[in-house]
From TrEMBL:
GO CC terms of this entry: cytoplasm
Residues making up the signal peptide according to the UniProt record: none
Highest rank taxon of the organism: Bacteria
Designated name of the protein: Sarcosine oxidase, subunit beta SoxB
UniProt source species: Donghicola eburneus
Positions of the FAD dependent oxidoreductase domain: 2-347
GO molecular function: oxidoreductase activity
């Protein structure tokens, strides 16, 4: 089976890798550098807590693959199962966390609850105001700069053709499959997988499938290196825009959240909003007072597709046989990436997927 994968972000690269392993002849087409869309901008959080519960089977599938990533890819993508610690600052958030933790058990996720005393005993470096936390020991983070290129290189090693700096300009359904026009030539395939991220909406629309997706840019930053203080990824149970951070191995603190995401114009370029930094730092210093003494050395953003009900689009097209979609990951796709690639490869090559994907079907907007 010949498959063209559109978009060399984490989803497209992982799909190319798993499709190739299942015996498909794969061409991965990316208009820029592999992984340079939303993926490279990601915070790198591999977090399951707080997810939409029916998404947990996919998240578990993905986490298992993150744990195997180095062996599968032949390269360390800096996946570290450091655990994910999520702080609680008020009674309403404590109730939310407990409700989620109770329900999540039935979906195979166990969160540990830490009291204020346990939290401050384990992590004395954190500020005193948190009243508790949840801890998810098997979650963690990976390096968003390494992940997509590593999947694409491993796919190429196994026989996939990777075409970067190649823009897809049109896709036509033919009797035999698809004809795909690009800036570097015309290609044919029996199946097409739309992994075009925030730009996947347009490809779906070309086949009569309208998805309510808007583009936004989470605001990120990184500090100069500081002595090692903290191991897990740190987040907050909050109704909106909780701040989050992690300390990378060379000592820098990577952070995001705490403020609304910026709007992204039609050019798809997510701009940094320098004026939100003081508010981000105000919240982060409350969580981690040692941050007061380090300099922020860089800020960035990235264009991500947010679908109206907060869930991605995954599965077969509702209008066109042989067309598949996996786009619009709403700011939580980095964790899901390997699982999405594996699940889509299973669906395309076998016609079914053992992980339930119905909640993400594009037909929900038909
Ligand atoms: C700032 C930021 C922080 C984030 N933090 C986290 C996090 O901590 N944890 C988490 O789980 N998720 C996080 N996310 C979300 C996560 O990064 C994304 O959901 C995920 O990377 C999406 O991958 P993708 O492959 O679908 O999209 P992308 O990486 O955007 O890839 C899509 C690719 O398609 C290509 N493309 C589009 N149109 C065409 C065309 N016509 N021809 C050829 N190529 C085309 C683009 O160039 C692009 O490279 C974050 C996102 C952002 C922006």
């Amino acid at each position: 089976m010949d498959v063209i994968v559109i978009g060399g972000g984490l989803m497209g690269s992982a799909a190319a890798f798993f499709l190739t392993r299942r015996g498909a002849r794969v061409r991965l087409i990316e208009r820029g550098y592999i992984g340079a869309g939303a993926t490279v901008a990601s915070f790198g959080n591999i977090r399951r807590s707080g997810r939409y519960l029916p998404q947990l089977p996919l998240a578990h599938r993905s986490l298992a693959l993150w744990h195997q990533a180095e062996a599968l890819l032949g390269r360390d993508v800096e996946f570290r199962a450091t655990g994910h610690l999520r702080l609680i600052f008020d009674e309403a958030s404590l109730a939310d966390m407990r409700r989620f933790a109770q329900d999540a058990v039935h979906w195979g996720l166990k969160l540990e609850e830490l009291s204020a005393a346990e939290l401050h005993h384990r992590y004395p470096i954190l500020g005193p105001t948190a009243i508790g936390a949840s801890f998810s020991p098997n979650d963690g983070s990976a390096n968003p700069r390494l992940a997509a290129p590593a999947f694409a290189s491993a796919a190429a090693r196994d026989g996939a053709e990777i075409l970067d700096h190649t823009t897809i300009t049109s896709i036509q359904r033919t009797e035999a499959g698809f004809t795909v026009e690009t800036t570097k030539g015309t290609y044919h395939a029996e199946a097409v997988l739309n992994c075009a991220g925030a730009w996947g909406r347009q490809i779906a629309a070309d086949f009569g499938e309208i998805v309510p997706l808007t583009m936004h840019g989470p605001q990120m930053g990184v500090t100069e290196p500081m002595p090692h203080h903290i191991l897990p990824v740190i987040g907050v149970w909050a109704q909106h825009h909780g701040a989050y951070f992690r300390q990378v191995e060379r000592g820098s603190i990577v952070f995001g959240g705490g403020v609304p995401r910026s709007d992204v114009g039609p050019d798809g370029y997510a701009k940094v909003q320098f004026d939100v930094l003081p508010e981000q730092l105000r919240q982060l210093v409350q969580i981690f007072p040692a941050l007061r003494d380090v300099a922020v050395i860089r800020q960035w953003s990235g264009c991500e597709g947010y679908v109206a009900n907060g869930l991605p689009v995954m599965g077969a097209s509702g209008t066109t046989q042989g067309l598949f979609h996996a786009f619009g990951f709403c700011g939580h796709g980095f964790q899901l990436g390997p699982g999405v690639g594996d699940a889509m490869a299973e669906l395309i090559t076998t016609g079914a997927c053992e992980t339930p994907l119905e909640a993400f079907s594009i037909s929900r907007f038909a």
